[in-house]
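Hi support team,

I'm filing this because I wasn't sure whether my run with pyridoxal-5'-phosphate finished correctly. The job status page said complete, but I'd like someone to confirm that the output block is well-formed before I use it downstream. Pasting the exact inputs I used:
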Amino acid sequence: MLKLDNHPSGRHFLHIPGPSPVPSRILRAISYQTIDHRGPEFGVFGLELLKKIRLLFKSDDPVIIYPASGTGAWEAALVNTLNHGDTVLMYESGHFASLWQRLAQRMGLKTEFISKPGLEGWRGGVDAKAIEERLKADPNHIIKAVCVVHNETSTGVTSDVAAVRAAMDAANHPALLMVDTISGLGSANYEHSAWGVDVTVSGSQKGLMLPPGLSFNTISPKAISASKTATLPKAFWAWDEILEANQTGYFPTTPATNLLYGLSEAIDMILEEGLDNIFARHQKLGLACRAAVEAWGLEILCQDPSVYSPVVTSVLVPDSVDADALRKLIHEKYNLSLGTGLGKLKGKVFRIGHLGDCNELSLLAALSGCEMGLAAYGYSIKASGVVAAQNILR
Ligand SMILES: *Cc1c(COP(=O)(O)O)cnc(C)c1O
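And here is everything the job wrote out:
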């Protein structure tokens, strides 16, 4: 058994931006007995699940469910739709966009990565104008797909996907639009169909409040038609056999049965609260978190308030503070886990997750842990962030 005896009392405060805390209602659903995935009950369950999951994406398009982390669904999106040597246009909005780009290269694709110098691109949203200009300069349609990250978990930025769609339309370009909303789905508004997304990539362990282990591709008719001729090698990730089996509620290989129970429960919980209420709750939590950061006298990494993430806040620390040493201290003293700085941001930021099963008091507890940790580290804050956040949440 995992040794967790340094904090024997109370709960662990998991405030990394995924995995996020799993509500007990979902844990209980996961603990139901594993059933025969080829038996009669499973087909009924599977059909209902595959139908209702589409509501999360605001779409009627099919959702492919993989027993994999989000990275698997990134790979699946590419290998199902593209050919060896195809060019994909990606946008460097942060660490996750960079990882997807590296994955695309490893799959044998040519990537064009729109980047800004230094940290500039990591402190704002996807620049749809830059995408439009690049597409307009591609009259022969060499670019086969545009790939962007909706909620950049490394930076705390939620980009405007509708603007990317509009840019592609303005350039009259036929490339597929692929969007990673692994950390956005279920916490920040997302509209697969209205935004004209061809492949939406998502995962279980962030806004959906599930443990890690499931990921998704939601696929438009245009993406399905591209998949009929796409020649990148694929077997496990191939949509065709999955779509075929899904018609009767089953899967071609053994599904993650117990995680699917949890997924079904999570969807019910989300629909009971209502997607719009959930988005409003997250907006408010984000606002309160940013008010705390400003009160402390620290800087929010995202410099464009129009794209602040409702899911995660990245806090830039001054050179005198080592963000990872601060995180370690907070974890040891207060049993609170905060997100680390990824890639270019290593040691420079810590991230406060406020996604999924998070409410006013869970956020205030996390902010309180940060505030006490800053004091223990020897950093003198300007004013209480907890009080500033309370003023918003009251
Ligand atoms: C977490 C995350 C991923 C990676 O997913 P894994 O489940 O770790 O494979 C990709 N993109 C974004 C935006 C994420 O937040």
